[in-house]
Amino acid sequence: MKIRPINKERRNHMTVLIVGLGLIGGSYAKALKAKTGHTVLGLDNNPEVIVQALKSGSIDRAAAAEDLKTADLIILALYPAQTVEFITGHARDFGFHPLVIDSCGVKETICRSVYPLAARHGFRFVGTHPMAGKEKGGFESSDAGLFDGARFIITPERPKSPEIETLCAFAVELGFTKCIVTSPARHDEMIAYTSQLPHILACAYIFDERAKEHDGFSAGSFRDVSRVAQINEVMWTQLFMENREPLSQQISGLIKNLSLLKDAVDAGDSKTMTSLLRKGRLIKEEITP
């Protein structure tokens, strides 16, 4: 895994076509209009969203079929299954000119499907993942500042792909501060821990019947642990199922660690509990800037 310093030199004017104007796609559009001079085209299966995007000035116009060949950059902001479906259905439409990127939270299944397709049909594709989000989705939740200070992950087919520097420079225009280049497998392994497991934990925690009675008994701890249980269950189910093996390993590891703590509680073992809590504190202090 490499962390690339982002070149702050602005790119030449581009036409950027965004497919899917939900939280991520809408935020891409708003950030592009607020922070760059690029032309932004939008494509969404909901005509109302296109109307909202036009009225808010988030896109310059709705995309047409021929724009798939002439756009400089095509950003797919769709669920994993829909991403592969869209690329498969339009593989002959892209041509060599546009650079096509996705924004999915899993990379192995996407890249395994799309890189051979790109080679067969002669279009350029690079897997990417903008590390940003909110509890609520949809265009109405999108935000021009969503990517400020965030990380931009690239999973290229080849480590020295010429598109890497182009994408890193593009990312800084939108507010990203670090560009991380890694393999799809390493991405999915890390995301299982840093993103997917916390969502699993939050849902498991909120299942308890006491959650409905928390008012008056809760403060920051309840809020922090339960926050990401406010989840898009359709999208996250896709992400979990596409990353089953790494996620299952992380869940097993969490259960093991919880068991260590539970055993200390059950045994009234203050010494072991203190040691475990100290270990957690020291790790957190080490990784917190």
Give a verbal description of the structure:
The protein has eleven helices and nine strands. A nine-stranded mixed beta sheet has the order 1-9-8-7-6-5-2-3-4, sandwiched between helices. With 289 residues, the chain is α/β, with parallel strands linked by helices. Strand 2, helix 1 and strand 3 (39-43) form a beta-alpha-beta unit. 50% of the residues lie in helices and 14% in strands. The model is unreliable at 3-10 (pLDDT under 50). It has two domains: 2-182, NAD(P)-binding Rossmann-like Domain (Rossmann fold, 3-Layer(aba) Sandwich); 188-287, 6-phosphogluconate dehydrogenase C-terminal fold (Orthogonal Bundle), CATH 1.10.3660. The longest helix is centred in the last third of the chain and has 24 residues, at 244-267.
Question: Topology, pairings included?
Answer:
Elements: E1 2-4, E2 15-19, H1 23-35, E3 39-43, H2 47-55, E4 61-62, H3 67-70, E5 73-76, H4 80-90, E6 99-102, H5 108-121, E7 124-131, E8 151-155, H6 163-173, E9 178-181, H7 184-206, H8 220-226, H9 233-242, H10 244-267, H11 270-287
Parallel strand pairs: 2-3, 2-5, 3-4, 5-6, 6-7, 8-9
Antiparallel strand pairs: 1-9, 7-8
